[in-house]
Specification:
This protein has 4 helices and 13 strands. The protein has 263 residues and is α+β, with helices and mostly antiparallel strands. The chain has one domain. An 8-stranded antiparallel barrel has the order 1-4-5-6-7-10-11-12. A two-stranded antiparallel sheet has the order 2-3. The longest helix has 24 residues. It is found in: Endoplasmic reticulum membrane.
């Protein structure tokens, strides 16, 4: 009887240890290879409600051992019809995460805090700045030591098992903004104004006007001001990204054929 009791206690400790391990090995700030897109105040300024464009595209996640997360995305979107006109999107959100019994991870953001900036400089002269709220489910994850870089690497697998880009440990403890609600909204029952105004606000997500893509230059010239401005995504940088996509596509298409290979 004592043996069975000892085995039960031992198995309980192993299971508990696995759950604790699932929390502790995630702790830190992780980023894709560029190491230029990172969570924290360098990506989002909550005081001025401003997204800050990194030098390079990338993805970053931060996790605390007590169940908080933060994420930062900066992605270029290729334009097959016109490679010289790519788009770009910046997304930021934070909230809580849960390590589930089946080994999956659930991320639940604070709905009012998330921000998104979409830039399509060839189509619009203004960026689209809205709230962003997207729960996430990762089927599983693993933390390993990368054989090439010899640093911890986080492999996340999406809900359907598709692997994401590898993330590498950049900082531990993590670099994050405060984990509490940063942009609380008024949830009172006061009149919201006309129906047209309410619909417009719901569509935009934020009560701010659209932000000119060249706001920074105008701001420096003293033409505009205030704290509602969000940094634009650099259109020149997007052009170079588009040119890079074109070059890579041409290399992949013509290179093998020049060598007599068939794809």
């Amino acid at each position: 009887m004592l043996l069975y009791h000892s085995l039960a206690v031992g198995l309980g400790l192993v299971a508990s240890g696995r759950a604790i391990g699932g929390a502790s090995d995630l702790t830190g700030t992780w980023s894709t290879k560029s190491n230029k897109t990172l969570t924290g105040p360098g990506f989002y300024d909550p005081l001025n409600d401003k997204l800050i464009e990194p030098e390079r595209t990338g993805i970053s996640y931060s996790f605390t051992a007590d169940g908080y997360f933060e994420e930062a995305y900066y992605r270029a979107i290729a334009n097959p019809k016109n490679p010289k006109c790519p788009s770009a999107i910046m997304q930021w959100q934070h909230g809580t995460w849960t390590y589930n019994a089946n080994g999956s991870l659930t991320l639940e953001p604070i709905p009012v805090d998330g921000r998104q900036l979409l830039s399509k400089p060839c189509d619009y002269d203004k960026g689209i700045y809205t709230r962003y709220n997207q729960s996430e489910l990762f089927r599983n994850y693993e933390v390993v030591t990368d054989a090439y870089h010899n640093i911890p690497r986080l492999n996340l697998f999406e809900f359907d098992g598709t692997p994401m880009q590898p993330l590498y440990l950049v900082r531990s403890p993590p670099e994050m903004l405060p984990t509490t609600t940063l942009n609380p909204t008024n949830t009172g029952t006061a009149a919201a104004g006309s129906k047209a105004t309410s619909k417009a606000k719901a569509k935009r997500g934020l009560d701010y006007p659209e932000v000119p893509l060249n706001w920074k230059a105008k701001y420096e010239q003293g033409m505009i001001g205030g704290s509602d401005m969000v940094q634009r995504i650099n259109a020149d940088r997007l052009w170079w990204i588009g040119l890079t996509f074109t070059g890579i596509g041409g290399l992949l298409y013509f290179g093998p054929r020049r060598l007599g290979l068939r794809l």
